[in-house]
Amino acid sequence: MNRMAKTALVTGILGQDGPYLAKLLIEKGYKVFGMIRRYSNPNYDNLDYLGVTKKVDFVEGDMTDESSLINTVRTLRPDEVYNLAAQSFVGDSWQMAKLTTEVNALGVLYLLNAIKFFSPTTKFYQASTSEMFGLGNTNGYQDENTTFHPRSPYGIAKVYAYWMTVNFRESYSLFTCNGILFNHESPIRGIQFVTRKITDGVARIKYGLSKKLSLGNLDAKRDWGFAGDYVEAMYRMMQQKKPDDFVVGTGENHSVREFVELAFHYAGISNWEKYVVTDPRFKRPAEVYELKSRPTKVHKVLEWKPKVSFKKLVKMMVDADLKRFEYA
Ligand code: NAP
Ligand code: GDD
Prior knowledge:
Elements: E1 7-11, H1 17-27, E2 31-36, H2 45-49, E3 57-60, H3 66-76, E4 80-83, H4 97-118, E5 123-129, H5 153-172, E6 176-181, E7 184-185, H6 194-206, E8 213-215, E9 221-222, E10 225-226, H7 227-238, E11 246-248, E12 254-255, H8 256-266, E13 276-278, H9 296-301, H10 310-326
Parallel strand pairs: 1-2, 1-4, 2-3, 4-5, 5-6, 6-11, 7-10, 8-13
Antiparallel strand pairs: 9-12
The site of guanosine-5'-diphosphate-alpha-D-mannose has 24 residues, from helix 6.
């Protein structure tokens, strides 16, 4: 190991963003430690997909187990901690509100305390979310000044974590920042999320493995970008002289229906209406109807802009799922 290499601890390393961030940090010369929770059979597929599994050092820890976080931070004393771990599926958060709160809210407090007591020079990134805005908007968009009105236990837990992150900065002068990221997707997006559910479903239909795709609210609108672009914004936030909070998004939004239409189109299937059925099981007790960022600050201060357009993103995901089934 290069002794001068910077060190980063990434929680949530096995999810979607963890592997993209690990790849970026490794390319920048970092030594990356990835925190994984105890599993009888952990799944390294996403890290494998990006070819970085062997380049990450794994440490065991769980966001609900304070002592594991203390031990990890005390032992590693990393330069940077990126807290990506979460129960991140909004749809499940009503059914598992307590777990969601323990992981997404209290877990963040534990991690911040571990840094405060055992490694106060460590910089901290919190994976905050546009889901905190919920119904809040300013003339149809959301930015750093928009009021939070979360609509799910997930969003509420994330609001707590957001403010704790701000409070540790204000109270103890720690370097802590929030990236308020709008939806970002990729070929390794979890299968429950609507984009990947659609591209996986389309590929199954294409290869005759499925006849229908059941979805919930087709009118919901999201500001969708590519995860590979968004981890660059996380990194840039942590290289600032002063910690701050940033909204990260594309500045445009599209409906679930538009995503569906394009995905079927790219798979070469006409008449998408023939295959898509709406199922109330996939509707939410309280919906966030529309999210759209105003990413002026991130453009100006971090000089960050997304590279992958909405159309390119849909095509990338459709192509990846078609390829998976081609060899299945
Ligand atoms: P993801 O794919 O669901 O990954 C979340 C990771 O957290 C998984 O690796 C999971 O571990 C881990 N985790 C869950 N519970 C844990 C616990 N108790 N202890 C330790 N690790 C735990 O999520 P993502 O899309 O990469 O998102 C990364 C972060 O950004 C999340 O905090 C999410 O809430 C936030 N965010 C995401 C988006 C987006 O559009 N993707 C937008 C805004 C904010 P397992 O692999 O073991 O399940
Ligand atoms: N998952 C899912 N499944 N969503 C559906 C479906 C379906 O069958 N049908 C319609 N939708 C609608 C949801 O109601 C929601 O309005 C929208 O599609 C997007 O849902 P998800 O892809 O599950 O993402 P999300 O916006 O709820 O949450 C994601 O983005 C947040 C940032 O805004 C997650 O990644 C969160 O972790 C993240 O914070």
